[in-house]
Design brief:
The chain contains twelve helices and no strands. The chain is mostly helical. The protein has a single domain, classed as Up-down Bundle (A middle domain of Talin 1), CATH 1.20.1420.30. The two termini are 24 Å apart. The model has no long low-confidence stretch (mean pLDDT 85).
């Protein structure tokens, strides 16, 4: 093991860039929702989710289009399937830890308050879309069938957007002052200023995430990790940092619709758009380990769907997602299923 100090330093720098950019993005996206009078469910599940999902969406596309001869397809498939696994387990558990921690500090209440209709809609769409996407591996020898499934998933996301905007819910409470407005001492939140902050935050998130991924991968390869472990464990941890940070920031403020909607909306996006790309642009031959992570992701989402419907979701339930993540990864590694 020969980890370069420069990689560790750049890892810290890139994570700092992500933290600052996420603060700008979450503040800006809240103000965008206020300015346009858009409901919190749309702001969290669509605007924030799609924006922060871009790093882990672009990564597998680059791997397939430019690095096919260097395990590019394997890395892409692992990253595409690994993103929903990470979101439904580790990322949601971080939301639970955040709620518990800030409630303990007295900065928010311990109960989780969400728009049940919006979150249940997100989880239902995810479960159905991801199950169909995973089943596409049965058609790995039939490109025409895979293209049809890909088209169906793209249509599904279009229907999801239509349904979400149609039932967008209430506009959230007024956020704290727009950071860019405070910095420029403009004294007003003009739409152009809000959009500028959102774009700056998003650009920082994407560039910070790519920098973070490159140095995480350098460290992982120095540690001797396999390409598949790198793709469905290491890369998603890095590329999903924006969702994690955004959700922590919103959970701190008691904005649970935004905190959880950011993750559940990303789950829908990840199960439709990147999976459709994988079905169309690769042979979509999923390993046993990859399918296992998909089953865990769907199982966790189904459990949370039940708890939200029953109005019994608590922070501790979300925290147990980390246990599901740790058990799955350790089992795959110890049994060798991660590499086949």
């Amino acid at each position: 093991m020969n980890i370069a100090p420069a990689d560790v330093l750049m890892l810290l720098v890139s994570f700092a860039v992500i933290l600052v950019s996420c603060e700008l993005f979450t503040n800006g996206i809240e103000w965008l929702g206020q300015k346009l009078q858009i409901g919190e469910s749309v702001v969290g599940s669509v605007f924030a989710a799609v924006g922060t999902a871009l790093p882990e969406t672009v990564l597998p596309m680059i791997a397939v289009l430019f690095f096919k001869s260097n395990h590019g397809t394997d890395v892409a498939i692992g990253a595409i399937a690994g993103a929903p696994f990470m979101l439904s387990t580790l990322t949601l558990s971080i939301c639970g830890v955040s709620v518990w921690y800030f409630a303990l500090k007295g900065t928010r209440k311990k109960e989780i308050t969400v728009n049940r209709t919006a979150l249940c809609r997100d989880l239902r769409f995810f479960i159905a879309a991801f199950a169909v996407g995973l089943s596409g591996t049965l058609a790995h020898d039939y490109p025409a069938v895979r293209w049809l499934i890909a088209a169906a998933l793209l249509s599904t996301y279009g229907f999801y957007l239509h349904h979400t905007f149609k039932h967008e819910g209430e506009v959230g409470a007024s956020p704290e002052s727009l950071h860019l407005d405070t910095f420029l001492k403009a004294g007003h939140q003009e739409l152009w200023l809000i959009l500028a902050q959102v774009v700056i935050g998003l650009a920082g998130i994407i560039s910070g995430a790519f920098l973070f991924v490159s140095h995480v991968e350098a460290i992982a390869l120095s540690a001797g990790l396999s390409p598949l472990i790198l793709s469905f464990v290491v890369s998603p941890i890095a590329t999903e940092a924006p969702e994690k940070v955004n959700s922590v920031l919103w959970a701190r403020s008691g904005k649970d619709n935004l905190a959880l909607g950011n993750v559940t909306g990303a789950l829908v996006f990840q199960s439709c758009i990147p999976v459709a790309f994988g079905l169309a642009m690769t042979d979509w031959t999923l390993s046993i380990g990859t399918i296992a992570t998909g089953i865990v992701a769907i199982s966790c989402a189904s459990l949370y769907l039940f708890l939200i419907n029953a109005e019994r979701l608590r922070a501790v339930h979300l925290i147990f997602g980390a246990l599901a993540y740790a058990i799955t990864v350790s089992t795959l590694v110890s049994t060798g299923l991660a590499s086949r």
